[in-house]
Every structure is written in C-alpha cells, then in structure tokens.
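Sequence and structure are kept together here, with a separate record for every protein. A complete record is shown below as an example:
=====
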Amino acid sequence: MSNKKISPRKNGLQDRAKDTIETIIEATTQLLEEKGWMSLSTNKIVERAGVSIGTLYQYFPNKESILHSLVESLFNTLAQEMLQTIETLDLREKNLKEAIELLVDKFFYRHENKKNLLSQFLMSSVSVEHLKFMIQNDQKLTQALKNKFLPYAGELRIENWDRTIFIVLYALKGIHFGVLFSKPKATQEEIKKEVATLIYGYLNIKH
C-alpha cells in the first residue's frame, strides 16, 4: 500500500453525515466485489454512491482512506461474528472430535460469504496498522476458544493452553487464507474434514 493518507478527514457525527459515509462505503464494497480493486476509482465510487466528488472528499482524502475504513470495519465485523459464534457453541453433548469438526465448519461458514471481498482487501489494502487491530481481535478469539476446550482438559493434558490455542487459531486462519488465494484440488467439505483431522491430531499429541 502507498504512503498516502489513509485516515478519514472527519467522523460523521450527524445522522446525515453518517448516512453519506455509509453510502460511500457500501458503494465501494459493491464495486470491489463486482470489479475488483484494480478497477476501483473515486469517480466510479461517487457514480455508484450517487454523490458528488466534492462530497466524497469531505470525508475521505482519497481511495485508500475509504479502503482503510472498509478493511477495519470488515475485520472487526468478522471477529465479532466469530467471537459470538464460538461463545454460543453448545459442545456439552459432543466429544472432542465432534467439537473440532463443528468449530471448523462454523469458521469456514462465517468467512465464506465474504470470501471475494476478503481476497480483494488482502491483495490491495491491508497494512501493518490493520494487522495490529486484527491481532487484538485474535486475542479475544483465542480466549473464547480456550474456554470452549477447557472442559476437555482431563482428556488432553495440555501443558500450555495459551500456546496450543494460538496454534489452533492460526492453523484455521492460515489454511483459510490459503484457500482464498489458491484453487485447491478439493471441495470445501474435504478441506474442512482435513483441517479438523489436523487439529484433532495436534491436540491429541500434546502431553
């Protein structure tokens, strides 16, 4: 990403301003999903949003600042949705293998409907600044995962829970990002099954 200013010019405090910002961001989202980031421009954004170029520049100094706001919003939304999913998972009647399979399924499901948008962002606009708040969100997910797996502590006898859950989370995320950028010779169901087997095997050798 370039060194252009990426922070919005001002926050919309009034309802009308908030609506305008949301309209601009929604228009940008639609264009990214339909055309990709290579063809994105402020002219196309204002045309889709139905606002003037002057109005856009009141809130965003350039295209990069819009993408910055979008990335931040998307990553935070995904993290909150996944956190809620993990916290509400009912694993009381499930053994460890079933619990892992359900977790993997939920993780892939939560990200699937934003797959194209995620891939566009990761290719165009993710910065170190974005990675910082992504890591902050991941810390919350790590704790939620830890709480879900603690009931299996007697079975697993894990020495360092924080380290182990860290590995599990980033195994999930790393494989999913790999799926975003490649064309694996497998269906998503096959990949999910392999990921669940990987995590199950890893947890069972931690003695």
Summary: The CA atoms of residues 22 and 49 lie 10 Å apart. Residues 63-88 form the longest helix (26 residues). The chain is about 75% helix and 0% strand.
